[in-house]
Amino acid sequence: MPSRHSLHPVANNGDKRQAHKTSRYVPPSLRAEKMCKSCGRPFSWRRRWAKVWDEVKYCSDACRSAR
Ligand SMILES: [Zn+2]
Q1: What residues contact residue 29 under an 8 Å CB cut-off, 6+ apart?
Q2: Which of 22, 38, 40, 43: CA 20 to 30 A from 6?
Q3: Residue 19 Cα, ligand 1 centroid: separation in angstroms?
């Protein structure tokens, strides 16, 4: 192997990946599906739920009040 220097950036890339994996931030597109507890259908993340997404259990107000 002619260039030893190229080994270092590769190692650094590996570290970066690990750091990214342990990051707590999850983009909305990855937490975008839940099952509605009322109608049983999967529904996707919406902006209006951005602050309460952890508590959202129903796909709509209708389902929430339907039980
Ligand atoms: Zn529903």
Answers
A1: 45
A2: 22
A3: 37
Residue 25 CA to ligand 1 centre (angstroms): 27
pLDDT band at 39 (very low <50, low <70, confident <90, very high): very high
**How remote is the CA of residue 46 from the centroid of ligand 1, in Å?**
14
**What residue has token string 């739920």?**
49
- 8 A C-beta contact, residue 60 and residue 44: no
Domain ranges for the chain: 31-67
Q: What is the pTM of this model?
A: 0.51
